[in-house]
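ok so i was messing around last nite and threw this chain in just to see what happens. nothing serious, just curious
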Amino acid sequence: MLFFSRKGDRTLISDISAPRAIKIPKKLKVEELTVIFNDLFSDSLNTYLEGGADEPLYLPASSICKHNRLIFCQDYISSALHEISHWCIAGEKRRNLIDYGYWYYPDGRSGAQQKIFEKVEVRPQALEWIFSVAASHSFTVSTDNLLGEIDTSHYFLQSVLEQTHIWCREPMPERGLLFAKALSHFFKTQPFSSSLYQFS
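result:
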């Protein structure tokens, strides 16, 4: 069964350096991020970004709430960008389901379970990396498996890196492109150069 990362705290990978990102004075604030997202998608797709939760969650519109809610952990910008990346990739049918209809293996996954995680997480984490560079925010590839029996594989790291390079030269998900362009406009960045995405 498919699943993906749902935690606000990111798992650090000790054997690699953090990816390079654009260095500019302006620092992203969670309130700005929320406004940028909601300005783009609240009217067009009836979806609102909000923080303050103990755990991230996507809730489609219902009789209780008339709009879709994309909820991230506390005021963690990395959690918000990660949840946005999943939302940008999810298709219309998935966006009509709570948490897109996925079931999540908890921390402490086995080697086999971690391989499934890595397969599903490549595209969301690549898109999150692009968002992070567009907003001049730090990014770390996440294993989300502090208690697990294996470390993140080199194949996963390379797959995330290769996907960012692909999206620098080929079309990315439409909502992801709109959001990345909005961030780059606000922060005066140029996030679509593959040279920005390297493990140093």
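not much to say yet. DSSP finds five helices and three strands in the chain.
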